[in-house]
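hey m, so remember when u said the tokens were messed up on ur end? i reran from scratch. heres the input so u can diff it against urs
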Amino acid sequence: MIKTFRDLEVYQESYKLMLIIHQAVKKLPVYERHDLASQMRRASKSCPSNIAEGWAKRRFEKQFKTHLDASIGSANEMEVHIDTARDLNYWQRDFCQNLLTRYQQLGGKLTNLQRNWKTF
């Protein structure tokens, strides 16, 4: 049974991904720590934060869906940042592929939640 946003699978996964990203950005070159790393930290935090805020406003359908849209957008943004880290050889390809797969799955689950939110 879902009692709080913390019970949502999408929240749990997005939070785990945020923790992984925050550890991984420490391995970026120094000159990327204020640019790419900062963008990654913000986008990865945005996913679980918007899920939590949206859940609090779920009785207002439009606001709830707006927050889920923002979370989906941040997951998509993370895919671009991960591609960048991979293609600039900052992170290993298999590490990036795992993250990309997880963010793509997260985006799909968020879309499903957005479509079927009344059943939660």
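this time it looks ok to me. Residues 61-87 form the longest helix (27 residues). if urs says something different then somethings off w ur setup not the seq
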